């Protein structure tokens, strides 16, 4: 199995399925300027759960669309995965089983970390407790969407609302400071997501807030905070990049 996925639920699914089928998994992941690659093979070495026993809390790891990826990085890691897959097919001894390859594209450095099978791993350890496939979205905290359409505004809907009732609408940008410097919707209120819980009391309860991030994912966490505080709030579909493509063509898309 050669992996090209970018979410934790699918990775745990692939890992468990490969373990049950006694198949090696050629794993690769990328983020910004760094990449990883290895071969997980529970029959002969550690599995993914040995390295990552638990998934990170939902929303704490930005997607590639939000965090960005150095353009050539997918090609480098993909080529490494393809090489390992061919070597496995040909039965060439030297593989990445038990070793994690780390690639830093900024420094042009390759490093290796030794991986060990975790004796208490619930999938491949001494006392296995995972014997069948699970609901991996639940395992990773990805519950079915609880947001109905009433909580979302498209860029064009927001533009119309601003034209009709500008004094009532507040665009709340919760991106990081370096993103704010790249682009911003005119008149937005800027409060980074990490600071928002401490500033909820300063928000005007008579206003309606439209939360904005890069592509409309991180802003869901802010939306939940605002609603739980009793404020009226919406999420901008597609984030500021969608706004730049559909409304303000002068804004950069990043």
Supply database-style keywords.
single chain; 33% helix; 2 domains; alpha/beta; Oxidized Rhodanese, domain 1; 9 strands; elongated; four-stranded antiparallel β-sheet; five-stranded parallel β-sheet; 254 residues
- What is the structural class? alpha/beta
Which CATH first-tier class of the largest domain would you pick?
Answer: Alpha Beta
What is the overall silhouette? elongated
Q: Give the strand order of the largest sheet, numbering strands 1, 2, ... along the chain.
A: 5-9-8-6-7
Question: Number of DSSP helices?
Answer: 10
Radius of gyration: 22 Å
Residue fraction in strands:
15-25%
Q: Helix proportion of residues, in percent?
A: 25-40%
SSE string: HEEHHHEEHEHEHEHEHEH
What is the CATH superfamily label of the largest domain? Answer: NAD(P)-binding Rossmann-like Domain
* CATH structural architecture of the largest domain: 3-Layer(aba) Sandwich
Q: In total, how many domains does the architecture comprise? A: 2
- Report the count of strand segments: 9
CATH topology of the largest domain: Rossmann fold
Terminal CA distance: 32 Å
Low-confidence parts: none
What can be said about the biggest beta sheet? Answer: 5 strands, parallel
Mean pLDDT: 90
Please give a structural write-up.
With 254 residues, this protein is of the alpha/beta class. It folds into two domains: 8-139, 3-Layer(aba) Sandwich (Rossmann fold); 149-246, Rhodanese-like domain (Oxidized Rhodanese, domain 1, 3-Layer(aba) Sandwich). The chain has ten helices and nine strands. A hairpin with a 4-residue loop joins strand 3 (99-104) and strand 4.
């Amino acid at each position: 199995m050669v992996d090209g996925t970018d979410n934790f639920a699918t990775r745990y699914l692939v890992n468990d399925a490969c373990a049950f089928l006694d198949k090696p998994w050629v794993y690769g992941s990328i983020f910004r300027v760094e990449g990883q690659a290895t071969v997980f093979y529970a029959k002969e070495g550690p599995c993914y759960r040995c390295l990552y026993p638990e998934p990170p809390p939902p929303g704490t790891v930005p997607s590639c669309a939000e965090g960005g990826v150095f353009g050539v990085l997918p090609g480098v890691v993909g080529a490494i995965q393809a090489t390992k897959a061919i070597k496995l097919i040909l039965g060439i001894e030297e593989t990445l089983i038990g070793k994690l390859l780390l690639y830093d594209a900024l420094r042009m450095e390759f490093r290796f970390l030794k991986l060990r099978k975790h004796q208490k791993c619930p999938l491949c350890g001494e006392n296995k407790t995972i014997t069948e496939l699970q609901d991996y979205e639940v395992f990773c905290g990805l519950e079915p969407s609880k947001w109905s359409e009433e909580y979302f505004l498209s860029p064009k809907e927001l533009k119309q609302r601003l034209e009709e009732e500008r004094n009532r609408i507040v665009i709340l940008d919760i991106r990081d400071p370096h993103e704010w410097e790249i682009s911003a919707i005119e008149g937005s209120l800027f409060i980074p997501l990490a600071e928002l819980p401490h500033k909820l009391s300063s928000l005007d309860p008579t206003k309606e807030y439209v939360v904005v991030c890069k592509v409309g994912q991180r802003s869901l966490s802010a939306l939940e905070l605002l609603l739980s505080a009793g404020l009226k709030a919406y999420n901008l579909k597609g984030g500021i990049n969608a706004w730049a493509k559909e409304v303000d063509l002068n804004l950069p898309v990043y």
